[in-house]
């Protein structure tokens, strides 16, 4: 009855969590700073890259995937792969019809929705 079994719980150090937190704050700063530069269609890819890096940091260190079973990491990577596929398809679709939009065609939509 006095046997002690290890339940596999990993406790991260406060120093490590603070380093990850600082990295997330720097990532947020980079995201906000990137919006001030007009790089055309590259802006969305920069934003997505920063967001992906931040999501990976959160999953690895705050969700403890770094110390979890490899299968859970595989599921995480598979989810990111499918998310990338879906976002890529959506961006390709947007790129296909962007040239056919009529400038100024739907300007009254926002004012009609707000009652103005």
Regions with little confidence, pLDDT below 50 for 5+ residues: none
Number of strands: 0
N-to-C terminal Cα separation, in Å? 73 Å
Taken in chain order, the helices and strands follow as HHHH
Determine Rg (CA atoms, Å).
22 Å
Fraction in helix = 55-70%
What overall form do the CA principal axes indicate? elongated
Largest sheet: none
Beta-strand percentage? under 5%
Output the number of helix runs. Answer: 4
What does the average pLDDT come to?
A: 82
Q: What is the SS-derived class?
A: mainly alpha
SSE blueprint and pairings:
Blueprint: H1 14-34, H2 42-62, H3 70-97, H4 109-113
Helix pairs in contact: 1-2
Polypeptide structure, described:
The chain has a domain at 13-72. 65% of the residues lie in helices and 0% in strands. It has helices at residues 14-34, 42-62, 70-97, 109-113. It is elongated. The N and C termini lie far apart (73 Å).
Short account of what is shown:
The chain has 116 residues and is mostly helical.
Highlighted features:
about 0% strand, about 120 residues, single chain, 4 helices, mainly alpha, about 65% helix, elongated
